[in-house]
Amino acid sequence: MKYIGEHPTDEMYRTGLELDVSCARCGSSVATEHCDYCEDGYDGHDCGEDCCMCLHPEENVICQYCRGSGVWHTCLSSPEWCEANPAPGREDVKRGQLEWFTIRDET
Known about the structure:
The protein is an alpha+beta fold. Helix content is 10%, strand content 23%.
């Protein structure tokens, strides 16, 4: 099962199979780095009040940089190589898009 998007689909999670990700344009491996702008995908607390009176405010504002995932995914190939070497049929896919796929357990 394959899917091009920022995050794998719920259906992919439900398969119970291991998920992996690669660059959707060139097929290169992808580095996963923790987002430096947030804590686990959240960046602050907003309860809707002008003056927060919450005794124990929980983080509930989704990070604008990683969009709540808490990580960045980056193609490990150079921008020049990735742009010059798209996989067949992927010429219109932009660098930085992710292709998620399930890995079959062969045991």
